[in-house]
Each structure stands twice: as C-alpha cells, then as structure tokens.
Hints:
By secondary structure, the protein is α+β, with helices and mostly antiparallel strands. It has five helices and ten strands.
Amino acid sequence: MKIQERSYSTKIMRPKPLIHSEEDGSLVVVATSWGQPEHGQRALDEVVKYVSAAKADVEVTSPFEFLTCMTDETNYVRTALMIANDALYRGENKNSYNSGVEILVIFKRGLQLAWAQVGSPSMFIQRENQKLQPLSINTDLSSELRSSEENLPPLPGQLLGLDRTCYIQCGHTFVREGDQIVLLAGTSIATSLWTLEPHEGNLGRITDRMIQEEPESPFWLGLISV
C-alpha cells in the first residue's frame, strides 16, 4: 500500500495528521492529535510496535481478549488501538484531559485488508471499474450544530485516550491490485465523491471537486493504492 495525502485549510484550521507507512506496504497508520502533537506520535508508536510484532509471528501478550467473530488481522489492529488507548489514558489523561487522538490503522495481508479506528477519517473503497463504496463513515460533532449559512470549527466525536475504554470501529474486506482506498476527514462528505468515476480517482482531481463544492470547509484527504 502506498499513500498520498493533501490538507486543505481555510480560515478554519484542521490538525494535520501524522502518517506512518511501512516500506513493505503492509501497514498504514493515520493519527490526528487534538492537543499535544507528541501524544499522537505516542499512540502511533504503540500501534506500530504491536502490529509489527504480531505480523512477524512474534509471541505477544495482551490484556485484551481476541474476538472469535473477527479475523486475526482485525484482532491485531483492534488490540493495538486498545493498548494505545490504555497507554495514553494512564500516561496523560487519567487525572485531567490533556489531549486525545483520532487514529486509523489499516493492515494488509495477502488479499485481506483489515482496519480499526477511533474517530476520523472516513474510509471508502473504489474497486477497479466500480463506483466508490463506503467502508467506515465518521463525521465530527460540528455537523450536528452547523446551519446552512455557517461553517464551524471541527469537533471530533470520538477520541483515543480519554477514558479507560474507547469506541473502536473495525472490519475487513478483500482487495485486489488496482483497488484504491479513499480517506476523508472533514465536517461533511462532499456529494462529488459519490459521483466519482473510476478514472477520476486521483488526488488532485478529487481535491479540486471538493473545494469547488465547499470552498470554506477544511478537510484532509488521503488516497491509498493497493
């Protein structure tokens, strides 16, 4: 997997995420810190450490139960987020809130793509010669308060590290060469995404269409080539 990314800012700012991409293309992590930037890096490091050990078949111990309804790969990324949540909560937020992290982990093994996330970005897949399909949708809380005439600063709805437990969305799908994963963090999902044709799936074209539709709304966009 190879990732390209672009941030679009207006008068309203959206934090730029940290990106980790393994050289062998098996793992991508996107972490956005709401607070201290180093806390996003800490969560990212915990995730990479655990998943790297798990995929290398190193014996790893975890206080968290594997769920039999999920694949091993999905359990790996889910457990990694639980470990990162525990580390951030105990180390930074147990007594008072300092910062939280939105994070997405994508792990590819063979034809299987497993993911787990807390908060944004939303994730879509564009299979070869097919329309865009949603895999996981996340919108921030400002969309609940926004009127048609105003743009509000982004407000994350789910964050890693604020509590002993966290809400993790996870799943898996099968991918083939030529498929593309679209990642989007923003207040809303542009309607132009849903009408995107397979041949239009490049970073510049998608960005231009989104800006034309909502020029005052900041967003982060990532494209992962499988």
